[in-house]
Design a protein that fits this description.
The structure holds two protein chains of two kinds. By secondary structure, chain A is an alpha/beta fold. In chain A, 37% of the residues lie in helices and 25% in strands. In chain A, β9 (196-198) and β10 (201-203) form a beta hairpin. Classes of the chains: A alpha/beta, B alpha+beta.
Chain lengths: 221, 114
């Protein structure tokens, strides 16, 4: 019996392409954000609301990932923002290669912020580096206050967790303080941001602020 | 179910390692980190489904679970944590850096020479 030693990471190929993407983003001074979360957690709604203030300071393109339909990219286009749609046809996550392919359709000189909204899924996208600078995991309060405990890798591999639909928590008996504690128990370093309706108006100001500060800190401002 | 795409990569890596060799693969050894986000049952299912043909046909998948190890960011102690929250047994610090248990590695191929 012969033993062939290999010792290679199964994500090696994706990681290699992610590094190529990262080089392209850095060469073009583009900050890249990867937004992940369960289906229906409110990723696109959050995006719609942060795009309005972000377009004041940044030239933005959005890549939307979904199994099917171009509903989300159409929603973003309505705001006057360039949006491309990837349909994975059943695939549960975006990978670095899909992003690399999509970059040919974007004028990289023309943008300084690329936002990728991943396929709705709290498991698979987490394992795939796309070459991004920052990750946000979106968790809606109606998903349940113990959701962070059930998905540790999602809590561990993100810069911030955005709790959305905060206005609905009271109707579904979810204690937001407990949800925050569960996140901190897993990842004490993650920032926790909140978004939801206050007096009927959607407010995600702290998310916008967090993104702007991260971009400025990368630029060394 | 990203386990199928992980298995696709495993097959590509194994094929590369087997290039130019005349050998029948009896088993593939895989190290699966406890925090790797991959489900052993799904890996096993995908492996079986995807090795019906090709150089890994009939091979067995042997999975070894790799426990989580972290380094305390205060005192530097490396320890194997139990449940969350991870608390350093020496200084009770809760900030840590993961040093093991997030990866998923193909370790080796066990072959029979032809």
């Amino acid at each position: 019996m012969e033993k062939i030693e290999i010792k290679k990471d199964l994500r090696e190929l994706n990681n290699k392409i992610a590094m190529q993407n990262r080089s392209v983003f850095n060469e073009n001074s583009i900050f890249t954000l990867n937004i992940m979360g369960s289906p229906g957690s409110g990723k696109t709604t959050l995006l719609e609301n942060i795009l309005k203030p972000l377009t004041v300071s940044f030239r933005i393109a959005v890549i939307e990932g979904d199994l099917a339909t171009d509903n989300d990219s159409e929603r973003i286009k309505k705001l006057g923002v360039t949006a491309l749609q990837i349909n994975t046809n059943g695939g549960c996550h975006l990978d670095a290669k899909m992003i690399q392919k999509e970059l040919s359709g974007i004028d990289l000189n023309d943008i300084d912020l690329l936002i990728i909204e991943n396929v709705g899924n709290l498991v698979c996208p987490i394992s795939y580096d796309l070459g991004e600078d920052m990750r946000l995991v979106v968790l809606s309060t109606p998903e349940g206050e113990d959701k962070p405990l059930k998905y540790p890798p999602a809590m561990l591999n993100t810069d911030a967790v955005v709790l959305t639909k905060t206005d609905l928590a009271q109707f579904v008996d979810v204690n937001i303080k407990m949800m925050e504690k569960h996140i901190k128990d897993i990842n004490p370093k993650a920032s926790i941001l909140k978004a939801g309706k206050i007096d009927g108006v959607y407010n995600a100001d702290c998310v916008t602020k967090f993104i702007v500060e991260s971009i400025n800190s990368k630029k060394g401002k | 179910m990203h386990e199928t795409s992980l298995m696709e990569n495993l097959i590509t890596i194994a094929e590369g390692a087997l290039e130019g060799k005349k050998a029948k693969v009896k088993s593939v050894t895989l190290s699966v980190g406890k925090l790797s986000n991959a489900l052993p049952a799904a890996l096993s299912f995908a492996f079986k489904a995807m090795t019906q043909t090709g150089p890994l046909r009939g091979a067995e998948l042997i999975m070894e679970e790799i426990p989580v190890k972290v380094r305390c960011e205060n005192c530097g102690l490396e320890y194997e944590p139990d449940e969350f929250p991870y608390i350093c047994p020496k200084c009770e610090e809760t900030y840590y850096t993961i040093t093991q248990g997030e990866d998923i590695y193909i370790e080796s191929l066990n072959c029979q020479e032809l």
